[in-house]
Amino acid sequence: MVPVPRHFDVCSIIENIEIFSIIKYDLLMKAPGPSFVVSSKKQLATLASSVRQEIVDVLSQMGAVSVGELAVTLGRPADALYYHLRALKQAGLVLSAGYRGLGVHKEELVHTISPDLWLQYKLGKGGNGREITAIVGSMLRLGIRDFRQAFRNGDAQVSGSGRELWALRKTGWLTPEEIVVLNQSIQNLDQAVSKPRGQGRLYGITILLTPLDHRARASRKKSNLRKSRSK
């Protein structure tokens, strides 16, 4: 895999996995490293699991930690993570960072291959649309699950300047210049959410941006089909 620099290019087909629809937790890696492009079908298929997405997202910001520490952060039992960590290791997305302790207290430390993981998009026929769409679907399901749980718990603010639950759906016509501004705003949001580990409350943000002109094309196809049948 070839590392990619942290810069913005509106024409790029590589999107930051943390910005594009993945849950972004407010944990910050102590020592940032180079980006890593997730491009192989095996790696993409591994990330289709929402549990593995959650593991990679949080682990990438925590650095080298034990499974127990990761489990506490995720609010999951450690035993439930081993299977998914093994799959992530086999895909080359999670690596062993050695061991800590001695004897019965010895525990393995793990970390992601990079603190900054990106998805590579290959558009059109012969691309990886099926794999990417599966990942995005899991991202959205993960966001819905957390949103539903926050409602059920009843301990989140839903109004005022300290509001903690938001859901937004908006459509509009944007110029290429406005798309550049919008993408910069998304990156600013990503940076605003990233905070040092252990400070503040843990939050998740899910973002999805997509053009909608395919709807117009589908409408024209139906219209042309009706005209051809009426002749």
What is shown here, in short?
It is built from 7 helices and 6 strands, in the order ββααβααβββααα. Mean pLDDT is 79; it is low at 1-32.
Report on the structure:
The chain is α+β, with helices and mostly antiparallel strands. The chain has a single domain, classed as Orthogonal Bundle (Arc Repressor Mutant, subunit A), CATH 1.10.10. 42% of the residues lie in helices and 12% in strands. The chain has helices at 41-46, 50-62, 67-74, 82-90, 129-153, 176-193, 213-230, and strands spanning 14-16, 35-38, 65-66, 94-100, 107-112, 116-120. Strands 1-6-2 form a three-stranded mixed β-sheet, with no helix packed on it. The protein has a three-stranded antiparallel β-sheet with strand order 3-5-4. The longest helix is centred in the middle third of the chain and has 25 residues, at 129-153. It is globular. 21% of the residues are buried.
